Amino acid sequence: MRNKFDEQLNMLNSEFIKMGALCEEAISYAVKCLTEGTSKLKESAFETEKQIDQKERDIESLCMKLLVHQQPVATDFRLITAALKMISDMERIGDQAEDIAEIAEYVKDADLQTQVYITDMAETAVHMVIDSVDSFVKKDLDISYSVIALEKSMDELFLQAKKQLIKAVKTGTGNAESLVDMLMIAKYFERIGDHAENIAEWVIFSITGEHK
Q1: Left, alpha or beta for 71 (phi > 0: left; psi -120 to 50: alpha)?
Q2: What is the pTM assigned to this prediction?
Q3: Angstrom distance (rounded) from CA 124 to CA 107
Q4: Which of 15, 106, 112, 128 is 20 to 30 A from 64, comparing alpha carbons?
């Protein structure tokens, strides 16, 4: 019985890696939509988000099977419960990457300095997502804490982008609508960081039983 359970836990890890890779891909497409803005990239971002939704359903089904049929002990129960929480955050990451791709075509005239901040936010977001999933697969608390620490950097980048956008609005430089859209994009990246932080916190719960 335990061997079967361990096999399914390994499958859960594998599915998480795949879902994490899709989230990374979704963010990458969103960033490319900002820099290149082709309809093909936008379609790719939307398709990736659909795959993330499907992967969420697949993992949810696997977790339910583990809970119902395998009678997990306390430690395993925490891990499965945390997994169900984490896939919700990962699904939201996909949604927000899709939102960025949706409005990317409207920001071509935005302030260049703000674009630099947002590029840094995108890179930080990808790093946080990859590491949060990695921390779950490796059961590594140090990686989880490093993701949580990065959230402060993400918040600071958002504040810098926000200040730059407010300055551009006040001075009348750049298209006002584009500047508002850039602020929305910056907020979406900040939220992606929040979701990655949530994943890391649920990893800590799955290992220690403690949740912030």
Answers
A1: left
A2: 0.90
A3: 21
A4: 128
